[in-house]
Amino acid sequence: MQTNNYSITTNLFKQVRLSLLVSVNSPRQATALKPILAATVAKIKQQFNYYDRLFSPEKTDLLMTQLSAGDLRPLFKNQNFQKIYSIATRAKLMTNGYFDAFYDGRYQPTNLVKGWVVKQIFAKLKLMMGPVIKGGLIEADGIVQTAVTSGVTYQWPVRTEDALTKRDLLTSYPIQNDSLVSVTAQSLRRPQSSIKQLVITDQQMLKAVIWATAGINAGTGKFLRLIKQHQLSGLLVDRALGVIWFNHGQLRSQQAS
After folding, report:
1. Which are the contacts of 51, defined by CB distance < 8 A and separation ≥ 6?
2. Could you tell me which InterPro entries the record lists for this protein (predicted)?
């Protein structure tokens, strides 16, 4: 059976890329699948639009703006806000305070919101997977979630580039049913961090988001201890030491930048 990759790019919730792994027997079957793929993409777009309207901090009439200003009343009005606030609270405890949704006195869980949205959308996408759609990938600003159906050996080639140069390739992760999160000190507005860029891979999307943020806040020395303690996998780019790899808590290699 021939397997084709269909990639659809959108700009609905920041930068969002949706890729579908589709199995076909013939070009005629591929043509017949177009309405099915179009309907699938339309449903995903609808979901992203819904969450964009709900969470966008750029729209002053929304509940998210109230939360950012320190007004916690929206937590009692919207169940989704309650869930994210609860996750942020638990994450702060889990990371010894290095993950904190409050910054400069304002509630700003931006990456956590993006990760949570991708998680919700991906749950909908997985329900659409089956005999025709064999796998899916959603990427939003460095937050990647992938899946394939049972028995499929395909691995999504997730490229991780140097976020500062936008050219150099750090690594390429072949993953099937996992998530990858890549953040920088610049994107988190933490210029003082000794970690320029941090990549975390994990089966749990939100866990990867939380530890990627926590690592930038902790800095290299403290985060290396947390890597071992919590059995984390990924890589970090230290300003002085270069690239440090880690896999299930074990440091694999170190090279100068």
Report:
1. 13, 117, 120, 121
2. ApbE-like_sf
Across the range 16-31, mean pLDDT stands at 77
209: its two tokens: 């988001």
Q: Which residue has tokens 């949205």?
A: 117
> Quick one: which of 58, 56, 157, 66 has its CA closest to 114?
56
Of the candidate ranges 9-18, 188-197, 202-211, the one whose mean pLDDT is the lowest: 9-18
CA–CA separation, 207 and 194 (whole Å)? 22
Enumerate residues 6+ apart whose C-beta is below 8 A from 156: 19, 135, 137, 146, 148, 174, 175, 176
Question: Tell me, what amino acid is at 128?
Answer: M
- pLDDT beyond 60 at 237: yes
Q: How confident is the model at residue 11 (pLDDT cuts 50, 70, 90)?
A: very low
- Cα distances (angstroms) measured from residue 229 to each of 211, 224, 249: 12, 9, 7
What would the pLDDT profile of 146-199 be if each residue is shown by its tens digit?
999 988 888 898 888 877 666 677 778 889 999 999 999 988 888 899 999 999
Q: What is the DSSP letter of 94?
A: H
Mean pLDDT of 122-144: 89
Nearest to 113, CA basis, from 135, 137, 136, 91: 91
For the whole model, what pTM was predicted? 0.85
What are the structure tokens assigned to 223, written together?
């985060």
Q: What are phi and psi of 92, to 5 degrees?
A: -65, -40
Determine the length of the chain: 257
Token pair of 107 as six digits:
């509630």
